[in-house]
Amino acid sequence: MYDVFVKKFLIILFSLSILVKSAPDDGRFAHSSAVINNQFYIMGGQVNSPQIVSNDVFYLDLSQSFNLQNPSWIDITKSSGMPFANSWASSAVSGDGILMFGGYTWSLNSRTPDNSENTLCLFNTTTKQWSIPAVNGKPPTRRKDMKIISDNTNNFYIYSGIQLNDDTQWFLDMYMLDFSGLNWELTQMNNAPTFPRADYTATMLPSGIIVYIGGRTSVVQDGLLLESELNITQLTLFDTKDATWYPMVTNGVMIDNRRSHSAVLTSDGRIIIYGGVKGNNSLAAMPQLAVLDTTTTSYTWSVPIISTQTVPLLAFHTADLYGDYMIVAFGNVTNGVTPPTQMSSNIYMLDTKNYSWITSYSSNLNISMHHDHNSIGLIMGLICAGVVIIVIFGVLGALLYKRYKGQGKETVIATPGSSLFENAEEGGNVRDSYVSASARLSNITDNNRNSANTESSMISQSRPTSTTYDNNLSPPPPYVSLNISRPSSPYTTQTSYTGIGGIGPKNPPYGSRN
Ligand SMILES: *[C@@H]1O[C@H](CO)[C@@H](O)[C@H](O)[C@H]1NC(C)=O
Ligand SMILES: *[C@@H]1O[C@H](CO)[C@@H](O)[C@H](O)[C@H]1NC(C)=O
Ligand SMILES: *[C@@H]1O[C@H](CO)[C@@H](O)[C@H](O)[C@H]1NC(C)=O
Ligand SMILES: *[C@@H]1O[C@H](CO)[C@@H](O)[C@H](O)[C@H]1NC(C)=O
Ligand SMILES: *[C@@H]1O[C@H](CO)[C@@H](O)[C@H](O)[C@H]1NC(C)=O
Ligand SMILES: *[C@@H]1O[C@H](CO)[C@@H](O)[C@H](O)[C@H]1NC(C)=O
């Protein structure tokens, strides 16, 4: 009799643990992420199946130690109120806010694709609430496979990308969101690249230069839209100070061209890229980790020796910097033979000082962000939580015992409401309409510079002197071709330029900043 009761109680406990097992444990790709203060946030993404878009929001408290096998995610999906489910978006940090832009959005009520023009939303990490900021001016057309990136003066930049429901429409424009003035502005660029770019990474240097690395481009030839990966030794840099583009050919070792990789900037001026795929089968780009030194006149690629190699090859993941650590999260596991078939549900941390992957994270580090932690409050909170849990289980156990004694009836445990959105055919079609390659849409949140990087403004970062693109450098062969009905250029410029590089703006000077 007592045995049966204990058994039943254990079953209930087990069911409860399933009940509280949260989405953070699921495989996920095309999500967004951000580090802000001591918190590492994961937002949205495609979960469990590529047809499910999520509105998950959860975070890790980096002021606490944890084992990387079992990070203690704090799930705030329900309370934070993300305005729509979202995948393939990009996010960037400013102050205590995370701005998320682009990608696919799904209505939370109708569970259908939300086709409204707005894809911009703001997460306030102080109040832990989402909102849709009211911004003046004409926002960029809805798009995907681009990045939003911030400088430290509340300006956000969005460059190129692909129209949401038409893969033949690539953009050549750049928009600036002035978040202090809440205004969108179409940027008048000098010497803008004549080719569009998607699935790239964008890294803001302390000097105000954005380094665009890799990704793919498209050209139109004989009614065919040909896509190819951009040559990773030919960077394009955008100087936000004078809205001018500069091409740069890098020095150092040769690495695979790639798309859907990630990039973080260390405080000493190294851009560490990770993962990504290449070719029409989305095979893993090698080597998986490479370093671009931005303190040399021509930036220099190198491939460090990694002391531990247990981390899978990934794409469609995210990477963020926290102190000396690069946090790589989720994404699809790639290989050298087939398109990715498996999603990752893990995070990994690289010590960027000596390029070693760690297995457990200790908060006992002298990271400048660590001082606001109130441990007494936390301990009190934990004690309270413990008491509450004990009381709940006590009551539950008593109830159960009573019930069992009385009736011996089955106890039914409610299944949790899902925070995921089953896709209607539409989402499937949306994905299917992508040109044959199954895996090339990316959304990687860049390393958003955070307060830990204050000393980095002292690094010297040079800007290339060349202002013309070397047309003799041929792009890699296309990996995919798509028949398009219109014979003319499919690029939607949205700007006063029509794709001729090297011509200065005829319009008023860039920006309203001083
Ligand atoms: C977040 O909320 C706090 C408290 O209301 C406010 O002071 C802060 O300005 C908000 N941050 C953003 C980015 O809106
Ligand atoms: C990621 O992996 C999942 C699971 O195998 C797959 O269904 C999905 O298509 C992959 N995503 C991409 C972009 O390749
Ligand atoms: C890397 O450096 C950390 C200290 O920053 C040290 O604890 C760790 O053992 C080093 N790892 C290797 C493989 O040298
Ligand atoms: C951390 O900082 C303290 C002083 O604030 C210093 O005594 C200690 O050696 C530092 N530890 C490490 C690992 O750098
Ligand atoms: C990329 O460009 C470099 C020169 O900038 C050239 O040497 C290399 O062959 C190119 N790679 C590919 C794959 O086209
Ligand atoms: C794409 O890959 C397949 C092999 O899976 C190959 O036969 C085909 O030629 C490739 N297409 C292009 C455009 O490279």
From TrEMBL:
Q: Name one GO molecular function term.
A: chromatin binding
Is Transmembrane one of the keywords UniProt gives this record?
A: yes
InterPro entries on file? Kelch-typ_b-propeller, KLHDC3-like
Q: Give TM regions.
A: 376-401
Pfam short name (any one): Kelch_KLHDC2_KLHL20_DRC7
Q: Where is the composition biased (Polar residues)?
A: 445-473
Which residues lie within the region annotated Disordered? Answer: 445-514
Listed A to Z, the keywords are: Membrane, Signal, Transmembrane, Transmembrane helix
**Signal peptide (from-to):** 1-22
Low complexity bias spans:
485-498
Question: By what name is this protein known?
Answer: Galactose oxidase
Species this chain originates from:
Glomus cerebriforme
